[in-house]
Amino acid sequence: MDEVSTEFLAYIIGIIILIIFYIIKLPRIGANEPPLVPYTIPILGHTYNYFFNARNFFKKCKEQYGECFSIYVFGRVMTIVSRSSLNEVFINHKDFKLSLSEFLPFDMLFENISDFDKVTQLNAKLVKEITGKIDSYTSIMQKYLLEGIDKFIGDCKDPKEFLSIWELMNHIIALPMANIIVGEEVASHEDVNDTLEFYTSQPDFDYSNPKIFHYYIDVLFVLIFGSVGTTSEIITNGIFDLAGRPECLNELYEEAMIIDKECNGSITLPDVQKMKKLDSFVKEVLRHSDDTLKFLHKVTSESFTFSNGYTVPKGRRVNLYMDDVLKSKDAYGDDAEEFKPFRFVNANSSASKVDRNYAVFGGGKHACPGRFFAIHEIKLILHKLILKYNIKTKSGKIENKKYIGPISLPPKKALIFENRK
């Protein structure tokens, strides 16, 4: 066989292999399943649009295919549920479970944990206990937030430029969180990791068993991973939303001055509850978090049928179309796409209150138990920053978030901090 014939044969074999692979990976949709959005690129399916055109892509899919539809990404079918069906995922916990491991390698990060549902339940119990004592923790939180602000931002008599704002907020938030989670004595030693008395009091805890000990260290890291990072992300988005809107910053400064004068600089829980404009601002920051999809779940029962009649099979990934919830004109009016910081001031709708149109903390009885504590801390640090500094973007404009597929990240632009006159 000559060289040309050999190359031609290899080419034909390659095509046959690709065809076989395509047939094997061809998505199979049941008769009662949500419609599969058509695609033109074999194997890749909708992966390109998922990564590079998420917001427009899902908006068009919703318009054309309705509340529930399926897409083909990463060689697998994923079902997207919109506002009318989204809450059914939250309330049917026995049929769905969160599937964070689909995009974060938790099994590699926390090798001593095999059952993350058990860890979630344990930490939820702990967070509820902490939230029940939130008033007594406020003074500790305030003390170490101020310490962190002084340490990492400091005196800005001459304006200072900061670039890595999210990292900056991580450092500041870590101080009060460490002192609340592991106690002031332990937290004073930067090289020490320890567990809470809550963990050591668990029936299976045993200091003499290294496996159990390391397990609870990982449980603590999961708690910190889930609390510090998300809280500081919200704060970072909030600071950028303030910095690009000087009129909003000035109005919140006026409210902060009144409350600060009333409490003589020592904030208590009732003082935080008086921050009505700040609470509305924080809720609008969260509403504009701009994650197109959020709370990836997986079907754990044999199948699940939504009230609209669509059925999804066991093992199916189900992602929630958050943009459709948080930017709904039915819920928020014709200006739903706009950022209006004081939208909720007279609406009797706090930033920590969960409902079907505000699902940033999940929904149902499994909504994030730490949301009350998180909102309390977010308002407290923003209150202190607003009182101490005038903050503005270096560009003088509202900065846009960064996007990785359907996930948003805070802007990576510079901010200018300057002492209040």
From TrEMBL:
UniProt binding sites for heme: 368
InterPro entries assigned to the protein according to its UniProt record, in alphabetical order: Cyt_P450, Cyt_P450_CS, Cyt_P450_E_grp-IV, Cyt_P450_sf
Keyword Oxidoreductase in annotation: yes
Cofactor(s) needed for function: heme
PANTHER family recorded: CYTOCHROME P450
Family label: Belongs to the cytochrome P450 family.
Protein known as: Cytochrome P450
Organism phylogeny: Eukaryota, Fungi, Fungi incertae sedis, Mucoromycota, Glomeromycotina
